[in-house]
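Severity: low
Component: inverse-folding endpoint
Summary: output formatting inconsistent between runs
Steps to reproduce: submit the following structure tokens with default settings.
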């Protein structure tokens, strides 16, 4: 795989695709996937294959981390609900013992 930039064929013509997005690296170094292709982007330099590989990897990592955070939050909410139900059951049981 070449380490230089990749030029698209038919530059300047419309490309039909099923879906599309772009990955950009902000000036602060953060990577972001953008689905709004009408957004104007001015790049300091053309992307190399390594830029593409690293940027895509960073975006995938962020997606996986967000997915894991959502799973963890869901599990914590379920555990909290179970603990609240257990506390209510104990409170009811204690009040019935009186």
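Observed output (run 2 of 3):
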């Amino acid at each position: 795989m070449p380490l230089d930039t990749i030029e698209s064929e038919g530059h300047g013509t419309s490309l039909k695709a099923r879906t599309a997005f772009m990955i950009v690296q902000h000036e602060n170094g953060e990577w972001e996937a953008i689905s709004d292709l009408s957004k104007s982007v001015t790049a300091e330099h053309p992307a190399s294959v390594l830029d593409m590989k690293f940027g895509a990897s960073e975006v995938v990592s962020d997606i996986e981390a967000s997915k894991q955070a959502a799973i963890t939050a869901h599990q914590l909410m379920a555990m909290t609900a179970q603990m609240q139900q257990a506390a209510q059951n104990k409170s009811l049981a204690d009040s019935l013992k009186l």
